[in-house]
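ZP: hey, is the magnesium ion complex queued? I don't see it on the tracker
AM: it wasn't, my bad. submitting now with these inputs:
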Amino acid sequence: MTVISIANQKGGVGKTTIALNLSYALAENGYDTLVIDLDPQFNLSFGILGMKLLDYTDKNIGTLLSKNSIKKKEIEESIVKINDRLDLIPSHLQLSAVEKMLVNAYAREMKLKNIIDNIKENYDYIIIDNAPSLGLFLINSLVASDYIIIPCEPSYFSIAGVQLMLDTVEEIKEANLNQKLNVLGFIFNKYSKQSKIPQERLEQLKQLYPNIPVISIIPRTITVEKAEREGMPVFKFESNNPASIEFLKLAKWVIENVK
Ligand SMILES: Nc1ncnc2c1ncn2[C@@H]1O[C@H](COP(=O)(O)OP(=O)(O)OP(=O)(O)O)[C@@H](O)[C@H]1O
Ligand SMILES: [Mg+2]
């Protein structure tokens, strides 16, 4: 079982899109996959469940994180079955209040890890979608993860912001919160060949961090957004779209490189 955080404190770089498409693609390849929506904006949960999200007011990652002691049965009751191989623990409107409450909790950095430890034998992969912030939820996510994937987009601020994520990873290790946390790589999202800038930004990223691989380059295409609006992975929406091909390639890469 492998836990992967999709994280970047920068907003709008594609975390949710990648968490959704990678999770579906891993499940499509026959791997039992759980995706956890740890973002109070609940984009991933809403994308998948739509208005049905309202049915999970008392069964979501927020209710689990706010408990002092957690029972396996309670966790299992919060899991929503999406298809044969894919499960979701949804986010909820009240999740930001839970993050504030967690600040005073005992072992506050370990809460998510404790939840995951209870159910990890049930899955091959657990993917966590994170909020664009460097708060306590992100720390929980990184403490619970084996790997982090950092999505970026071809903007100056996105490239400049990567260092903050890498510093956070180092802080987690230095604080002995999770020694085995590893940066799996960058995903360069919203790539386009139409102008020179995306290519230049990609080169910049590679030059700045020569030891961190760019594991996938996802093209910018409106189809990604359209599929999301339908609550679907892009490869189910338009299988021959270049973004679909890239997401399926990404899943294959993860399966081959992450055991
Ligand atoms: N490759 C792409 N091509 C076109 N649009 C994309 C692509 N990837 C993401 N988008 C769109 O960009 C927007 C932001 O993407 P997404 O929500 O995945 O980012 P995020 O990092 O999760 O944002 P946040 O930080 O707010 O959680 C969405 O509308 C999404 O549909
Ligand atoms: Mg998001």
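AM: back. The chain has one domain: 2-257.
ZP: great, adding it to the tracker
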